[in-house]
Every structure is written in structure tokens, then in C-alpha cells.
Amino acid sequence: MTGGQWGASLPVRSDEWLTAAPLELSTLANGSTMHSPLSNGPDLIYQMSSGSPIESVLFLEGNLLRLGAWLPDSMLFAAFRGWSWLLLALALPPLLRRFGANRPMSWLAVALCMAAPAAVWWSFMPIRVLGIAAAGCYLLVLAAERAQRGHWWRGLGLAAAAGLFLPRLLTYYVPWSLTIGVPLVLATGTYLVCRKGERRVALTVIGAGAAVGLFLVAGTFWENWTALHAELNTVYPGLRRSSGAALEPFQLFGAPGLFDLEGHVVGGGLNQSEISSAYLICGVVAALLWPLAWAHTATRERAAQVTLGLFILLELSWVTLTWGELGEHVPGLSSLPPARVAQTIGFPCALLMCLVLSGWARARSEGATSRMSPELRRALLVGVVVAVLTGYASGRLPAVVEGMPTWQSTTAAVVTGAVAALLTWRPASWLPVAVTSLVVVLAGVTVNPITFGLGDLRTSPAADRARALRAHSLAEDSRVVSDAMATNALLVANGVPVLGGYQVTGPVERGWAEVDPADRYEDIWNRGASYVLFSFDGQPGADPTVIEVQNDLIQVRTDACWLADSRFDVDRLITAVRIDSPCADRIGRRMTWGGVDLFVYALTPSRTASS
User: Given a cut of 60, is residue 402 above it in pLDDT?
Assistant: First the structure.
């Protein structure tokens, strides 16, 4: 353990340590969300609150980040990050038991989702979606149960609580809301309305929850209308349309082979996060056992399982078939890049497998099979099929993961097949659940470091300098500009008002009009989910130029005098290079951040500098 951290930080997760964490820490420092004059606020995407009343209700746990003036930042940050984990643990197991899962399988679903490669390599973003969906769905089920017993006020109250959670699937990362959250919501809906005698009560409860949710999401969209409108009209990702395409086998069934990736280089312009996925192989286990479990599954449980199965088939067609131009015109699906579907289709598959295995356990206990040998043969068959598919898919990983040994895919195939056989053989026992959970946890345990406190972003000499800059900027009502993403992360995490930084929900056109009054570069800066950087090597007296470094990186090339003369009130500039300009004077000592020496310059408008 060094520096208050177990494990090594990996640069690949820049969406987390370079974006999400600094934005969340900035809210702790400022008491509300912050953003550049070039960019709209991040509230809708990161589900944080700037203090508007309706979004403060909808993004409930986001209010924790507004308490930094009164409570320790590290505790609030941990509570905010752990909220979705808590929701998943509290809501998913009892919800799945309503759908027919036994207790061991309901907890296996939690382990398979929490430890999936797509979860650990995406900083548990999918878990945030699944936790919110599970909480809302479970509250709806509880509401219907209470109302069915005649406790209408309790039922309506629980339905209203569900309305606090489910509308949030329309914000955050919507493609994954569609692939992870929506299948669970639809399965819950079919489960509730399946029984004819209970349908009126179920529809009433669903309607009450929908009314509350509609009010909250409409109010939140109204409060954030400028950001929403900008995001929907960005070149990327707002106006982006995708179509279904056949992906590589490792993107579909390769999840079990995605262990020990930290020291490898991923080629093809990809990285470990991009090639990660969840356990689609669970869907194969479900398909092999479903016919045997069907007769021992209640009607409403079948309804939930069929809904999950149909949605999985739809998602599977999106990543195995070429839809062509037709796919770009299918509402909902056209917003789903096939790679993002492949990464997350395994989450509903894991839920479905646990439900089917529970039905298979009932079939055995009810005498559907009376001898040991057929059960063992069935388990061995499942294990062999799973091992072959896993071996074939993970065997393609060395083509994109440089230096991956061949034994890794073989190990993945053997272990995954053995685990699948064990689960099939003993579907009502805790032992296979414990073994499977241990395997999947060990496969990804080294991916994310464990940090004690808030790390160097808040507890380092560079962070101390950043807080001094914050005090100056607040006193002078000014901003700071930098030419490095890592420096922007440091500044934002400490609540420093910056020019540039993050443009997660689209541009502020009025701000960009100062940079690009003729809209020459609109196709470049009209983007969301992007970084905005400045460089200071532009020609003095020339207009700024805007450069697309990559899809999510916008660079504004200008000089110190233009920044000092602009209406952005920039009076401090931080860079690792020396600035030779009449408008920039180096002040104070240099600061070191990320192993780089940085210089701080005071900016003076050109008229003042020349006089």
C-alpha cells in the first residue's frame, strides 16, 4: 500500500478519473455543479444537482455531493459512489425471487453483474444503471402487493417511490439504460399485469408510478432544457445513428477470457474497456435448460422470463446480423452502437440464467428426473457447450490483445465450462454459487485500485496550489485555462472555475461564438461527451482555430493575448511550456502534477500590457 491506495491506477479509465471523479469532487467543493462558459452543465449526464428543486428530487443521492461544506468530502464521495451498489444488493435478489429465482440464484445474479468485465472495466457504470432499475422495479412489485391486499395508500406511496427511480433511465448513459435497465422494467411490467384478476390493481400502481416519474423527468428536462436541447443536437453523440452489425466472436462470448489484461496493449484503436463485455454465455445456459424448467415455472414468472428472453434476442440480432440502412431508422435501436450492446447484453442474460436455473432446480425436486445419471449428463452437456463456445470466442482475443498467451483462452474455457456444469448439477445449492462468485471476482479483482481518501486530486501539493487558485478566482471573479486534460482534472476537482475542461452535455453557442464567430468550426465544437483543451501556440493577433484531435477531444489553438482580451475573464494560465507573450507573466513557483512541471502565468489584457 503506497499513497493511500491498493493497486495501480490505469490510464485507460479516463472517463472515470479524468472526468467523472473531478466533476463529482467539484460539486463537493462548490456546493453545486460547475461548468465552463463553453459548455452546458453536467447534471443530466452525471445525475448530479446544481440546486434546482425538481432535479434535486430526481437525482436524490446527487445531493450528497452538495454537503461538502458540512461533512467530510471522502465520506460523501464514497456514499455517492456506493449508492447504486447498495440499491443493487437490496433490490435485485428479492425482485428475482418474485420472478421465480431461488435464494442462491438471486444472489448469484448480483455477483455475475457486479464482477462482469464490462462492469469492472467501465468503473461500474453498468451497475449504476442496473441498481436504479432494480430499485424502481422492486418498489413497483411491492406497491402492487400492498395494493392487492387492500393497503392502497401504502401501495401508492411505494409506486410514487418507484417513480423516483425509473425515470432516471432517460438520463445518464441512455444506450446502456436501453440494454440493461429497460429489459428489467419490461419484465416487471409483464409480471405485474399477467394475472387477469390482479391486472386492474397492477395497472393502477404502474400508472401512479408513471405519473410521478413523468412529472419529475419533465420537470428536470425543463430545468435543464438548454443542456438537453444542445445535447440532442450535437454532431456527436446526439445526431449519431447506428445500425446493427455482425461483431467478432470475442466481443460476444469472450468475457470469461478477459482476465489479467492490465499489462497488455490492445490494438486496433481499442482498449481494455472497449473489448470488455458481460457474460452473454449465461444466455446459452438458459437456452439449454429452459425447455426442462418451463413446466415448473408459474405463469407470471414465465411472462417475466419470456420478456427478458425476447429482449435478449432483439439485442443479439443487433450484434450478429447486418441491418443496413434499415437499422438507422428503427427508433431506440438506432441510438445503440453495436459495440455498446455487445458489452452489456450479458447483464440480462445473467438474470435470465439465474431464473431458468431456479426452475430447473424445481423440476428436479418435483421428480421431473428421478435418477442421478441423466442430471449429471445434462450438466456435462451444458458444460461442454459452454466450454467450446468460450474457447472459440476467447481464442480470438490474442488477435487484438498483444501478448496474450494461448493458455489464457484454454483456462477460460475449462473453468467456465466446469462452473456451468456445477451450476447445472446443483442449481439449488450455495456451493456452486460461492465457487462461481469467487471465480468471477478473482478474474477482475486487480482492475480497479482501492483508494483511501480522495487521493492526489485533493491531498497533494499540486491540489494545495489548485485550491489557492480557486480562492483567487472566486475573489476576482475570474477563470483559469490549461492545455492538459490532467491539469484540468486537478483544477476542476478542487473547484477552480476553468475555461475548457468538459463538454459533456453539448456546447453553449453563445460561448463558442466568442471563439468561432463565423461558425467555421461548428462541426468540430458542436459535440457532447467531449474534452475541451486550449493550446497557446497560435499566431498573435490571429483568430483562434478549432481542431478535432479525436471524436471526444476538441482543441482551441490561440495565444495568451487573445485569452486575456476575451470576455471569458481568464487571468491565469497553466502550462508545461514556457510562454513568451507580452500578456503573460510567470508567477510563483512551478507546480508538479503527474510527473510534469507546470508553470503558472498571470494574464494581462494586451492594451494594458503594451502601455
Answer: yes
